[in-house]
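For homework, think about our next protein:
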Amino acid sequence: MAGARGLGLLLALLPVVSAPMPGTVVRLNKAALSYVSEIGKGPLQRALHVAVPYFLDRSGEVLQPIRIQIVNVHLPQFDLKFIADFGIRLSAAANFTFKIFRVPEPLELTLPVELLADARVAQSSIETPVISIPYCLPLLGYSSDFDDSNSTSRALLALVQEHIRAVLSNKLCLGVASLVQEFNAHLGTLIGLNPVGPESQIRYTMINEPTVTSDYISFDITAVLFLLGKPIILPRDPPPFALPEHVHDEDTTATVGLSQDLLDSALLLLQKAGALNLDITGQLRSDDNPLNTSELGQLIPEVAHQFPEPMPVVIKVRLRATPVATLHPNNATLRLQPFVEVLAVTSNSAFNSLFTLDVVVDLSLQLSVSRAKLQGTTSVLGDIQLAVSYSNVGFIDMGQVRALMGSVFEKPLLNQLNALLGIGISLPNVVNLLYVDPEVFVYEGYVVVSSELFYLH
């Protein structure tokens, strides 16, 4: 409960965003339930390891307290399945081993138990998934360990067994409820801010009740990107995003659908942050920027006239328009439209603007997932389009200048972009949850990540 209150306080401190935000959809399939039952067996065994109070033996003249201790809970069977329009049904079979500290010597007793519980999955007040247990029933068996021939001992042990059964019938469901509360606190970490860059973050929240079918549970989640604490708002209202049924794969643990609008928001963030703006500078002999006034002067006579001695050239690349991503089946592309200014360094270290270019760069976009982040790499498609916007050096024959100019800023621009895309954007996840063996599929207007999940204990 303290965790939930803390998360509620965190949410209250975050900026409120009223405009529609990009949507994502997370589907957890039957394979997810198999994985949860596998890794949850240990925590459930510990939750069922409840304390048993002393049994008071009234058979003698004086009350004799008999200490009882659970020494082992073995869970040979633990299954989960979806209940359509409700949540998840839990069924488990356990064998409890007790040590009864009787006189003259202790006795071990084994008791079989079947546990049935229904877990309802809903949306919490802090817009995270929340699980409740409206129904829980322990079915208690009887021990067959009575091998003591003394009828008095057998009678005592029968009473002890009834005492244990009464305790378990009350406490086992409380143990399950306690385990679920811990799990809810963990699910609450969905709303935390995850860094995207030094000054930017992303936050996911649920926007409605989850959809539960007999095959999967689906969560509609909205994503908000922040730059310097302010939300990134697209210039248009994103339409609701729904993940089509045909992308469902019940053999995969998780299926995550990411709308086109999420990519658009990330690209708008890059543009607003000025992350793709760069200055390409160099000396007269520089591998990073081999361009100088002498080389330009061979193609543009006025440059040679203004700079008879070779001087370094500086290239300023500014992204004035938001990059545009396009998603078609099995094909993702990205268009950049930077504005490039070419300046020459004068003898007194001042800068003279030579000319400016409007540039269009079409890129192939390859998406991948590492741990819990969506990452990208790009490569140039076709030729870079260059057009003179303004010139202080007269007529420029772009047919002659194009190859020289493109080679100078293409590599630094791609290096900068790929470094940023390599940082990645966190996918919807909770603390310590990783995406394993992910595959990324591109459809018309959205991206799907199909992945196994791994929880770091």
In short: Residues 434 and 454 are 5 Å apart (CA to CA). Residues 151-187 form the longest helix (37 residues). The longest strand covers residues 64-83.
